[in-house]
Amino acid sequence: MGVFPTKPERSTGDGRSISRINSPTVRERDLADFLSKAGIFEGAGEFEKKKQKALEDLDEVELHKRRLRFEEETVHAQEKIKRLNLFLHELSQKEALLKQAKVKVRKDIQMLEGELG
Fold this sequence. Notes:
Structural class: mainly alpha
Helix content: over 70%
Largest sheet: 3 strands, antiparallel
Strand content: 5-15%
Number of strands: 3
């Protein structure tokens, strides 16, 4: 016997048990109601409500995790785009310098040809 002096008496045909508490016979459902009201035991309905709430909370956490992962991937993509844009800008500047150098070399060649010719 535990905290409450109960003794399983018998089971009904549908699988429910009947117990004794301090001699009177009580149904399992009555016992569960009594313990629930005493704040010792939660009935199946209350358990299901809490379980459903926990599952909903878990779904919300999973959704939040997916959003955070998406935001993180977006930030990484934006950083990569910034680096690529910087690279393209540097490449463009180098291309402009190369064009200027080609123009100068052509002028120098023309000047040398003029001096030699």
